[in-house]
Amino acid sequence: MTGGVTALVAAVMLWGTGWWAALALVPSAVAALAYHGAVQAAVAYGEAVRTAFDLHRFDLLRALHQPLPADLAEERARAAALCASWRQGLPPPDRYEHPGEPQGS
């Protein structure tokens, strides 16, 4: 953002100076490189989060005291219900599982 604003200000200030006006391209190039780097970093971060979630999704269910799904269809249905609960403020799932405690408690 700073590079883009600097390029704009430099272009206005150097408008009538001939070849010196080309110096306004330097901060513009810096802004473009910075933006490209930020996008690449965001993509890499998204991939890391997706991988961590894929590797630890059952640990997440255990931490939420949710029973583990029996198959892929059940896993997707529960994931959709949890996402709806978190994203849209819907009520949480009805069933909790507390390993190590007696069933009647």
Offer a concise description of the structure.
The chain is mainly alpha-helical and 105 residues long. The chain contains 3 helices and no strands.
Explain the overall architecture:
By secondary structure, the protein is mainly alpha-helical. Helix content is 65%, strand content 0%. It is built from three helices and no strands. Helix 1 packs antiparallel against helix 2 (25-63). The mean pLDDT is 85.
Number of helices: 3
Helix share, percent: 55-70%
Give the termini distance in whole angstroms. Answer: 58 Å
Report on the biggest sheet. Answer: none
How would you spell out the order of helices and strands? HHH
Q: Which structural class matches the secondary elements?
A: mainly alpha
How many DSSP-defined strands? 0
Radius of gyration: 26 Å
Q: Which shape, going by the Cα principal axes?
A: rod-shaped
Low-pLDDT runs? none
Classify the beta-strand content into a percent band.
under 5%
User: What is the residue-mean pLDDT, rounded to a whole number?
Assistant: 85
